[in-house]
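Before the break, one more example. Copy the sequence into your notebook; we will annotate it together after we see the structure.
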Amino acid sequence: MLFKKSLINEDVIGFLKGVPPFQFLDEKALQVVVSGLSMEYYPKGTIILRQDGPPSEWLRVIKKGGVKVFITPDKGEDVLIDYRGEGDAFGLLSLVGGDKSRANIVAVDDTICYLLDKTAVMKLVESVPAFTEFFLKSFLNKFIDKTYEEMHNKSLLFGGGDKLLFTTPVGEIAAKNVRRASDSISIREAAGIMSEGRCSSLVLTDGEGVPAGIVTDRDLRDKVVSKGRSADDKVSDIMSVSLIKAEARDYCFEALLKMIRYNIHHLLVVDHGRLTGIVTNHDLMMLQGTSPISLAREMESQHTIDGLAPVARKINEIVGLLLKEGAKASNITRIITELNDRLLKKILEIGEKQLGAPPLRYCWIIFGSEGRKEQTFKTDQDNALIYQDPRTEEEEAAARTYFDVFSAFVRDGLLKCGFPPCPANYMASNPQWRQPLGVWKKYFSSWVYSPTPEAVLKSLIFFDFRPIYGDFALADSLRDFLGSFIEGQMVFLGYMANMIIKNAPPVGFFRSFIVEKSGEHKNELNLKVKGIAPLVDMTRLFSLEKGIRETSTIERLSEVRERHTIVREHAEELEHAFEFMMLLRIQHQFEQIEAGKNPDNFINPDRLSNLEKKTIKESFALITRMQDIIIERYKPLIW
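Here is what the structure looks like once it is written out:
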């Protein structure tokens, strides 16, 4: 609803004096601007400008509320450009261009704007250099037009490849002319077909034409040439039979994760089970410019800890690129997880080669943020070791001796690669967390059946475990054991609920932030402890109630929402709050690293935008509501 009235000039001038670029105007110029202003009110959800729709007729300055700026590609999800709150302006690009709106702009709250018409704006642009310079820097640097063009042309000339990684279906970039041949041909014949077709891979089919395997130029080098193998052998002797596939509708991001996870360079693309193409690591590198795949390959080529250490330091660079390109927090942490998993596996492999084969089967597990696939820039070592139950005292002694040296090697290797030891010593190098499977089962059952505060604290840490290397059957056995008795243990779950509700969000009675009053973090709050941890903890509680095996918070919410009435009602809010706080944390840590500081979890609310402040308060309010629900649910067990 648009209304123009006699505005209280002094109040409006006072407001604009604190808003760039109007703060650069003198009193007389401000009087002229205010005399031509209108006001408009937009209820929450109003589409103020529509992408490719009519251009804006005004420059709008937000007096109260906030808006979201995003573009909608022809295919894929909306791409967020920016949030703008009190004092921010929007609409200049389409106003000056006069042809169309470049983006969608939607009110995310009840919003009031001051409106300045095109004639007045152009006079300011022509007469006040500081006014023009501000908008050139603040608006044009958002690269809305470039982003829009990237989504259609996928041009690397403008950068932004990582954003394409999250919005481009893998079927769009997959090579459609997949070379195929029978798996009965010889290696020589296969090499000839690949040479003739100038392709780096050949899909091999069985007698019924069903893909049975794949052979790549790497297989020819590593399995034939370097081994002196006869080219007349059957190609099926060297083909990879474990065919890793991606659905055509999956985003390239998912394909990238599979290539890193399985250490492969070619991925078959299928559409409802039908082979439609093949995508290579080169395709993804061309799409995104700097590729996590290349970093994973560089790790794989190292054979010493000293060689791994400088590669590990590059992980933060990848994260920075993804962050700048607007990736979701959960996607960033998944890439960090895949790369850190690859690094840890390599350290474990190097350890085994140096120390020899272990005397018993074992599984290396990780927990905490690593176990939940929620690692950010700074990650302590959180790991443990499960080994096969020894049958004799000699086996027990041999296992203790070997794994003592082995776990110390891994601890020191991770330290060289930038992962500091756990301050509480929750590491496999601590003998307490390097035990046979039977001991681990006793640990878990004792924590559940005798839920002291210390036992519950340990369960919060260890129940998020995830196997990373070795015999996964050991970890699966422990997970099965936990699932067999955890459901229905209301006393234990009550103790866990009690710990969760005691961690109150840092918001006062009048919704003001409660911050540190003194010390190194004066005027700051711990976003991890007060915001992210409660969301993680309550999601874990609901998941344990229903026997969910997933460890990631987002995956747990996805699983448990179908089986838990409370979560079903609030799952979307919980996911959005978690994504927002994680992204805020990653952005904060990235800025610290860029400034040469050690990353931490303390943020100053005064440095947040109005919209960020509002969103974080809404997130804290959600945590409070969920804590109230938990209190009601566990009322007899809460004290």
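The first strand starts at residue 2 and ends at 3. Residues 2-150 form a domain with the Jelly Rolls fold (CATH 2.60.120.10). Try to locate both features in your own notes.
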